[in-house]
């Protein structure tokens, strides 16, 4: 399988461990990640608020680059997946398409609408398949209770995305079970992490994140795992602030999606960039016999 690899901004800078783990999982599964240095940021929703056509144009450009190579596009960020999928939807509006095509024409870019956007979670559960995932497991994650945290853009708007139920998804839990972990079901798994308002109302954002973490802990989670690097920032990097906001100790490790899969495939914590996390993962790793020396 060959896919145009769209890592997104966070995985290339502050969240490099996500890129590291994705490459490990892709190599193990025989997925060829074709890189395009000319990809640009998806706008992360912020550009869309200021200029809808510009936001569609930058994402249509990314899609066209993959399309020209004859490849579908793999993203490892729920927000990137949301923005790219939204561009595909909005390009069906003749008025928007006309303006976007006018902006792209001087660049020599022609978006035809044939490329598909695939988040890593969907590639693993549908294209690769859970049976193939199980066959690759070398370190079953038995004894580890994991609360999936989907993030907003991976699930919504559900009608347009045509994939998981926005309120009762199950793909991530199915994947967790396939690698031997015990999925933890809790209401917060489909709620917002607070990141969109982190830089406007930080205390409110931290309170939102803290409530989701507390919810996962209350249902027995040893750790959380998310398919979105922005959610990871809220839940891991800002967990100290979240603990202060909810006035409760949290201390819950948060894994990126490919890190969970990589651990089950036998990778060491170092190979997956786990030492880069701000909330230590040692207690969770000890439960599966992967604690760092």
Could you walk me through the main structural features you see in this protein, from its secondary elements to its overall organization?
By secondary structure, this protein is α/β, with parallel strands linked by helices. It has 14 helices and eight strands. The strands form two sheets. It has a four-stranded parallel sheet. A four-stranded parallel sheet has the order 6-5-7-8, sandwiched between helices.
Shape: globular
What characterizes the major β-sheet? 4 strands, parallel
User: What's the mean pLDDT score?
Assistant: 93
The helix fraction, in percent, is 40-55%
> What structural class do you assign from the helix and strand content?
alpha/beta
pLDDT < 50 runs, ≥5 residues: none
State the separation between the terminal residues, measured CA to CA: 36 Å
Order of neighbouring strands in the sheet with most strands: 2-1-3-4
State the order of secondary-structure elements, H for helix, E for strand. Answer: EHEHHEHHEHEHHHEHEHHEHH
Summed up, the helix count is 14
Q: Tell me the fraction of residues in β-strands, as a range.
A: 5-15%
The rounded Rg comes to 19 Å
Q: Report the strand count.
A: 8
Could you give a short description of this structure?
This protein is an alpha/beta fold. It is built from 14 helices and 8 strands. The two termini are 36 Å apart.
What would the keywords be for this entry?
4-stranded parallel sheet; 48% helix; 293 residues; 8 strands; alpha/beta
Topology:
Elements: E1 2-6, H1 16-29, E2 32-35, H2 46-50, H3 52-68, E3 73-75, H4 78-90, H5 94-104, E4 117-119, H6 120-136, E5 145-148, H7 152-155, H8 158-161, H9 171-178, E6 182-184, H10 202-218, E7 223-226, H11 229-237, H12 239-246, E8 254-256, H13 257-264, H14 282-286
Parallel strand pairs: 1-2, 1-3, 3-4, 5-6, 5-7, 7-8
Helix pairs in contact: 1-13, 3-4, 3-5, 6-9, 10-12
